[in-house]
Amino acid sequence: MIHDTQTINKTRQDLTNYQEIWLFGYGSLIYKVDFPYIAKAEAAIQGWERRFWQGSHDHRGTIENPGRVLTLIPSQNQNCSGVAYQVSHEVFEHLDHREKNGYLRYEIDINLPNNQIKRGLVYIAPEGNEAYLGPASEKDIAKHIINSKGPSGENKDYVLNLANALRKLNIIDEHTFKIEKYILNIIQS
Ligand code: BEZ
């Protein structure tokens, strides 16, 4: 079900207090940049990994047939590489709406080039939120994704667009690439 986190997110940080706001993107925020930004950089956060464990009832699926999209899970010895954007606080009106289905904003250290570390924000859908689907094998996730679509398009395009964007950034993500491979195998069979 839709778990609308917009109201709760507004209470989590007072963004007007930040001198600079950096946002870490690890999924659709890498390839669908529909918001203005001041600066952009390759970036990483420590202790997190991507997983297609979050249900999407509003973008890549429907209430009846939710798709599967990314969240992050804690993972002590892993880094998650992606992209960071410096943005103004007004951008969060749009992003809180776009990422409203179970995602909470968390403060996090973001590693930027030249050993710079910025305190910034990331959207994570925590385990157990109402839209959470949880673990499954990459093969089962691919089968699920191939049969899902929603207002933002086919669920498989989320995976294929992301995998292409990650390759362009020289980011290796085994979980995403395995799911991509299963999806391509199913499409081509
Ligand atoms: C991201 O790309 O950072 C992101 C992924 C899923 C939901 C919200 C943000």
List keywords for this structure.
alpha+beta; two-stranded antiparallel sheet; binds benzoic acid; about 190 residues
What does this protein structure show overall?
This protein has 189 residues and is an alpha+beta fold. Helix content is 30%, strand content 35%. The chain has 6 helices and 7 strands. It has helices at residues 6-12, 28-31, 91-98, 138-146, 155-168, 174-188; strands at residues 21-25, 39-56, 67-87, 104-112, 116-124, 149-150, 153-154. The strands form 2 sheets. Strands 2-3-1-5-4 form a 5-stranded mixed sheet. A two-stranded antiparallel sheet has the order 6-7. A hairpin with a 3-residue loop joins strand 4 and strand 5. Helix 4 crosses helix 6 and helix 5 (155-168) packs across helix 6 (174-188). The longest helix is centred in the C-terminal third of the chain and has 15 residues, at 174-188. It is globular and about 50 Å long. The N and C termini lie far apart (33 Å). 41% of the residues are buried. The mean pLDDT is 96.
Biggest sheet, open or closed, and with what strands and sense? 5 strands, mixed
Strand residue content? 25-35%
Bound molecules: benzoic acid
Span from first to last CA?
A: 33 Å
Q: Could you list the spans in which at least 5 consecutive residues all have pLDDT below 50?
A: none
Give the ordered list of helices and strands: HEHEEHEEHEEHH
Number of strands: 7
What's the helix count? Answer: 6
Structural topology:
Blueprint: H1 6-12, E1 21-25, H2 28-31, E2 39-56, E3 67-87, H3 91-98, E4 104-112, E5 116-124, H4 138-146, E6 149-150, E7 153-154, H5 155-168, H6 174-188
Parallel strand pairs: 1-5
Antiparallel strand pairs: 1-3, 2-3, 4-5, 6-7
The structure holds benzoic acid.
